[in-house]
Design brief:
The protein has 659 residues and is of the alpha/beta class. It folds into six domains: 71 residues, no CATH class; 89 residues, no CATH class; 67 residues, no CATH class; 84 residues, no CATH class; 202 residues, no CATH class; 74 residues. Helices cover 22% and strands 31% of the residues. The chain is built from nine helices and 39 strands. A hairpin with a 5-residue loop joins strand 13 and strand 14.
């Protein structure tokens, strides 16, 4: 029940009556006050609740005695919960729905003494099987410890002798503010929870009941999300060492952002190699490129969700944010629906996904080899070569390039992905470059490979120059990287690195190869300019000496002026190059210590490991190893299998067994 004094003062301040039946009584004790109020109101004393407004004093020999001033209010009837019903439900477990506990066959008898507003109640449960009966002495001792001195002895003895499990009244409750329980409602600052703090009753003090807790919560302003089951459970257990969490607000739930659900594969990072028992990879079944037909659904926009507002325990609305909208970014070869929610293919072709934009490029198919019969191929869509690309031929595509055979000493360039099913045998002169995608090949030998994203090779990279903005993987059963220069922005992962014969192999990670290439080009340019400046300044020195002796001829004077202008121009360019080199060095110094080099089987001597600007020269063979950078040192640890970018899931290599 609510604190009557607070309720009285609050209503009085607002100018309203406390209650039609509330009475203020002056008496020598609280019990006398309740008896007088019961007589005046014509109700039973058990139907009254009270609040002490002024505590009385006995004085000395009657001198200075002050009476108790008590505010008495009748308890409203018609509540769903009655004192005896609550006791019975707690004792029988009926208040816990859908729970049936299997009781043991042999169980000692038990008893419970409850002091409530309606009186002092004893419930004695009979034993089961060979269990012992409740001893009258135990009950008497418990009553004595609770300072209940005048129980109905006849009712007590009968309840113990003939236990029924039903509550038996032993006497009336005697109000005593010093012994009764008290409670205080606390609402958190954000109004998202309401706690009720109780003090445990002492001796024959009474416990609070469900309806009183509900009234106190409502009086404190808690009007919704009251956890009635939690309140009942707490009152049953009477564990006053912790507060009761009586109500919890509902947090607002922000709506999910709109997103694009792609119905075709646009993320090429989720690849899988399938090997047979001998370890050979069926590279033709990788299905790295996506072909579509007219009218095929490419993607659908899933609309943003509206936020769901929350509510505090005081019924204050907590606003929620709606999800952000998005749009389908589309390119040529596609049709967007009028409502902007669906994108379909306008033509037959190959899906190209660049910079978040999806397009369908027309496909140019070469039925056979790229050779003298076809000449060089430059196409604004995707190119499929059913044969091979022979020596000294060029294939350029604005989309993807797919070669069913091999690529020899040729030049391939695509804005999308490049897939070579039977491998690349470049004989030191082949160059394969993807300016916006990845390169997939069965093997690479003696070629220059440059990819904006990944280079994925299941069978090996031999004596090649390979640059990848993100990862270089050679992870088939026979995969190895031997010889050449291998550079990746984030990771190099292979089964073998180097060879038993200590083949010189350079592997770099941690810096985007484009930055390294730019640094190399700047240094080469500076060397050339310095050489030219050296010769130029010798000539200027000679002409300057001649000018001091005599006037130069018209031809030599013209040469002097040209050399002077050239010297100034080259000196200015050297300053610019040195500034660019310094900026790149500062950028490299600011990079995070990322990048790793992994070998599942072995790393052999002759391999030089570079991570960012640190070097580790392999002089001994290492197995199942990973190289990473910590501080200014390259650390060695256990091998880390390759991961997919999307979802960070391990790549499943079907049929693969570690040798």
């Amino acid at each position: 029940m609510a604190n009557l004094k607070d309720l009285f003062l609050e209503i009085e301040e607002n100018g309203g009556p406390v209650s039609d039946n509330a009475v203020e009584v002056y008496a020598d004790s609280v019990n006398q006050a309740l008896e007088l109020a019961a007589e005046d109101l014509g109700v039973d004393i058990t139907d009254l609740d009270y609040e002490i407004l002024e505590k009385g004093t006995k004085g000395f020999l009657g001198i200075g005695r002050q009476p108790y001033r008590v505010l008495v209010v009748p308890v409203e009837k018609g509540s769903e919960y009655d004192d005896l019903d609550i006791i019975e439900k707690k004792l029988t477990g009926e208040h816990i729905p859908h729970v049936t506990a299997e009781e043991p066959k042999n169980l000692d008898g038990s008893f419970v003494i409850r002091v409530t507003r309606s009186g002092i109640w004893l419930t004695v449960n009979p034993p089961k099987g060979t269990g012992k009966k409740v001893d009258l002495t135990d009950v008497t001792n418990k009553l004595y410890s609770m300072r209940i001195s005048n129980p109905n002895q006849a009712a007590l003895e009968k309840a113990v002798k003939e236990p029924t499990g039903e509550p038996v009244k032993l006497g009336d409750w005697t109000p005593n503010p010093d012994f009764d329980s008290s409670m205080r409602v606390e609402i958190t600052e954000d109004e998202m929870a309401a706690y009720v703090h109780f003090t445990a009753p002492r001796y024959f003090g009474r416990h609070f009941e469900f309806d009183e807790v509900i009234d106190a919560l409502k009086s404190a302003g808690v009007v919704i999300v009251i956890d009635e089951e939690a309140i009942k459970d707490y009152l049953e257990k009477m564990n006053y060492n912790r507060p009761l969490v009586a109500a919890k607000g509902t947090k607002p739930r922000n709506g999910k952002d709109a997103y694009i659900d792609y119905k075709v594969r646009v993320d090429k990072s989720q690849f899988k190699f399938e090997e047979d028992e001998s370890g050979k990879v069926d590279f033709r079944n990788l299905e790295l490129l996506e072909n579509v037909v007219v009218g095929q659904l490419l993607c659908v926009k899933i609309p943003a969700e509206e936020g769901i507002p929350g509510r505090s325990v005081t019924n204050r609305i907590l606003p929620a944010k709606n999800g952000k909208d998005t749009t389908i970014r589309f390119g040529k070869g596609t049709i967007l629906s009028e409502d902007g929610t669906e994108l379909t293919a306008e033509i037959n072709g190959q899906v190209v996904f660049k910079s978040g934009r999806i397009s369908v490029e027309p496909v140019y198919v070469v039925n056979g080899d790229v050779s003298l019969e076809t000449g060089n191929i430059v196409f604004l869509g995707s190119v499929i070569v059913s044969g091979s690309v022979q020596d000294n031929f060029v294939v350029k595509a604005a989309g993807n390039i797919e070669v069913k055979g091999t690529v020899q000493k040729a030049f391939l360039e695509a804005e999308g992905d490049i897939v070579v099913y039977q491998g690349i045998s470049g004989r030191e002169e082949a160059k394969i470059e993807s300016t916006g995608g990845s390169i997939y090949a069965k093997f690479i030998q003696s070629a220059k490979i440059i990819a904006e994203k990944d280079v994925i090779v299941p069978e090996g990279i031999l004596h090649s120059y390979v640059d990848a903005g993100d990862r270089i993987y050679s992870i088939g059963k026979r995969a190895k990287i031997v010889g050449g220069i291998i550079r990746a922005g984030n990771e190099v992962n292979a089964r073998f690195l180097g060879a038993e014969v200590s083949t010189n192999t350079e592997i770099r990670v941690g810096i985007n190869p484009k930055v390294l290439q730019q640094m190399s080009e700047l240094n080469e340019a500076k060397v050339k300019i310095d050489e030219e400046l050296g010769q130029l300044r010798l000539n200027l020195k000679t002409l300057t000496s001649q000018r001091k002796v005599s006037k130069l001829s018209e031809e030599k004077e013209k040469m002097f002026q040209e050399l002077t202008a050239r010297n100034e121009k080259l000196s200015s360019r050297v300053n610019e190059i040195e500034l660019e080199i310094e900026e790149l060095n500062q950028y490299i110094a600011m990079l995070e210590h990322r990048g790793k080099i992994c070998a599942e089987k072995s790393v052999y001597p002759g391999v030089d490991i570079y991570i960012k600007d640190q070097k580790f020269q392999v002089k001994d063979e290492y197995n199942y190893i990973k190289f990473t950078l910590e501080g200014d040192e390259i650390r060695l640890s256990e091998y880390d299998p390759p991961e997919l970018i999307d979802g960070h899931k391990r790549i499943a290599l079907a049929g693969r067994r570690r040798m």
